[in-house]
Amino acid sequence: MSASTPRNDGPARPDGTEYPVQKPEADWAAELTPQEYHVLREAGTEAPFVGEYTDSKTEGVYSCRACGAELFRSAGKFDSHCGWPSFFEPLAKDSVVYLEDVSLGRSRTEVRCAACGGHLGHVFEGEGYNTPTDLRYCINSISLRMLPAAPQT
Ligand SMILES: [Zn+2]
């Protein structure tokens, strides 16, 4: 795993409001595993092709592993073959927030949980995937927790 964007912008979301879920960093560190903490709170990146949800086709809802907010649905997931779980849309427009990330010397758009500010990954557009939005939300599995849909009865 490698670091990308250090989180140094405090409790404010890009629109100036505060994240509704806030805890001292020591509490996050106690609740999350070191790997989860590194990605969610220090904007690290999981190695490609190792995440538990990379190829998952299970139907259900993906929530933030830090705070439990619902972020993505399996219906919005697609096969990007990029090595990370990829979605073409979040569960709702306001499920996530976006920040400019210039950490690799080029501009990328970081995606964070709108509830707690946990780092999720990045979003890329115009790559030509055959999806409804032409967006690829490239998300770390370790930032998510998947709750499978109840089986049909
Ligand atoms: Zn969250």
From TrEMBL:
Q: EC number(s)?
A: 1.8.4.12
Q: Name the InterPro entries for this protein.
A: Met_Sox_Rdtase_MsrB (IPR028427), Met_Sox_Rdtase_MsrB_dom (IPR002579), Mss4-like_sf (IPR011057)
Q: Which PROSITE patterns match?
A: MSRB
Q: What keywords is this UniProt entry annotated with?
A: Metal-binding, Oxidoreductase, Zinc
Q: Tell me the segments the record calls region Disordered.
A: 1-26
Q: Which Pfam families does the protein's record reference? A: SelR
Q: What is this protein called?
A: peptide-methionine (R)-S-oxide reductase
